[in-house]
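Dear colleagues,

As part of the handover before I leave the project, I'm documenting each prediction I ran so the next person doesn't have to rerun anything. This entry is a single chain, and its sequence is reproduced below.
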Amino acid sequence: MSEQTTSGTASAARRHDDDIRLAEQGERWLATGLSCEPADRAGAEAGVRIAYALAGLPAPRHILWLGSPAAGALGVAMLRTGQRGGRRDEHIRQALEAQGARPGELELGRSVRPKVRTRPWAQARAALTAKLGGTGFARHWAATARRPWQQLTDQLATPLRTRIDADLAGRLSARAGQTDQVAELPQAAREALLDAIGGQHDAAWLAAFDSHPDVDGLARVAGSAGWWWAFEHVAVLTERPVAVHRDNLGRLHHGDGPALFYPDGFGLHAWSGMPITAEVAAELPHLTVERIRGEGNAEMRRVMLEHFGFDRYLRESGASKTQSDECGTLWRVTLPGDEPLVMVEVLNSSPEPDGTFRTYFLRVPPTIRTARAGVAWTFDLTEEEYVPLQQT
């Protein structure tokens, strides 16, 4: 073996080891982002002080705790506006007052998020890019942060933020025509969402920077607590969830209660990543064909169909058998305001342990006209290309 070949082999081995180490680093931060452990309040508060110090700021005079990101946004709004909220917000107001923070009597000061969160991230990214080069940084990011970002930011933090904002928008809409003062609290809470720092959900990008000194404070908070807010005089921190339910793609998914649930009772219901209301979630175990057919929202109807079962819906809704051949039977049923539900019924050619043969239903595009074309489509083949050795 030549010296050049030996050197190339060693380089490839080092690169392989680096890839494994970076992937493990990403998985470690992903676990941090999904943690459902109670907040380590002392650790989080120490992280806050470090983050302020790294930003050249004095530590906040007050560090307050609330039970969820939703409570955090409303708590910040109460402190900023002096509004006490209604009965549904009473637990937030009481939690603030129990910590000596009465709405209207505690000065937050300006948001220091740009100094505490945005600038350190930019500094760490610039330093790593200077060290690795543009291509090297891209490879490093892909190895460490691509999966945490997809699993935490796309599948979890963004739906959570969207749900909280939608709730607040609904409260604003319900108060249309009332005084500006009544609408002030939900509007201020929506604005507070823009200032939130991700806490454990910042693990999505911290995975790329790990122990970089510029993000030390942020990393400590991420490892200890949920979303938080940073102001000149006050920091508002929140608990981590007590439960996160996801499907095999990492999407929020639970048919028996909230998919994401916080200790103060705030929860986010979702099915296959699709946020749904608590009312729809409560209906899922009791769905009927008539209820599904009467649902006006196409996305909600899809959630209902998935939970009810496409094959069960075909059987109970009077679906039409449109064609059959050696590959199976094609079924079709119309859905109000949506594309038709078309499925191929196929029989597994391999017997079960008891000697029976299991029937499966495969959903196919509504343009499919034969069972054979439908089965071929599931293999990404045309009807002419599909020549099975053994049908399944």
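Residues 94 and 361 are 53 Å apart (CA to CA). The radius of gyration is 27 Å.

All the best with the project,
I.
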